[in-house]
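ligand=adenosine-5'-triphosphate
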Amino acid sequence: MAQVTLSGIRKVYPNGFQALTTTSFDIPDGEFTVLVGPSGCGKSTLLRMVAGLEDITEGELRIGDRVVNDVDPADRDIAMVFQNYALYPHMTVRKNIAYGLKNRGTSAEDIAKKVAQASDMLGLDDYLDRKPSQLSGGQRQRVAMGRAIVRDPALFLFDEPLSNLDAKLRNQMRIEIKALQRRLGVTSIYVTHDQVEAMTMADRIIVMNGGKVEQIGTPAEVYHAPASTFVASFMGAPPMNLVPAHAVAGMVRFAKTSLAVETHTDGPVTMGIRPEDLIPDTSGPLPFDVQIIEELGAHRLLHGVVGDEKLTVHVGKDTDVGTGPVPLSVKPGAISLFHHETGTRL
Ligand code: ATP
């Protein structure tokens, strides 16, 4: 059992800065959880507390059944993969992968077996006698993964492991890491500021902002029912359209148009609609004026205005539209409403 449980965890750095407000959540056994948020939101702080590299100011942290607040990092049964790989430059790939095992006193025979298994899994067989400097970035990243795998930990921790790779390799490695995690079934916590990585890799996403958790949910929940305007605009590229509107039970008024929506709210609101949920439609109620068209191959983005409000619309490459007036309709059930001041989902 390697469920991770945070109960009332808080972090205040010695200089008095609170990097994490009181936070509680569980990470179920075997799940791939991604912590995502902008720079400085506290995601690395949280990961480092789980790893034991940072003191916990308040609260209780359990890995499995064990409270580990005061347990040494080496005794937490975790393996961590860092952004900079942290490989030993003077050691071969084989020795780098085996390093943690040797320190633990594993027999030479077992080490050889485990290294062979990991290198086979990661496609490193031809590189075992090379030094890290003779490897590409992706291969180095795989060696770092190999070192984590051979330790057979209860928990994998990843700290932005792909951010030093180019875009193409990043895409490839994120599929590899996800597939490997599925295959091994090891509980994993993965930190990134990249919302695409979060959406594509996670079983569950934890969105953080300014030292607090904004939302915990599956990628679909976080995307389709964001808990706040922050989540709505952080997850998704381009982000959700957010415009001021006015709710009267069962309707929301925007740009002199009434749109049906399930709500009991009355008064000013922020209305959110994903770009792909706005549909060019000659009988649509929203008078959209297209100003710029971005061609992206498989699809196009229409940037324009309804009244004074800017909107972005995502259409397929075959949709026949030009700049100028393009009336829009809204897909049923696609409107999110948020409190106009706090940004909380209504
Ligand atoms: P990034 O993606 O840039 O790494 P992050 O979300 O991982 O950001 P953290 O590294 O967890 O952010 O830092 C959270 C906040 O805590 C930041 O405002 C940072 O400046 C602050 N912080 C980090 N380490 C310390 C420290 N040792 N003392 C004081 N403040 C710190």
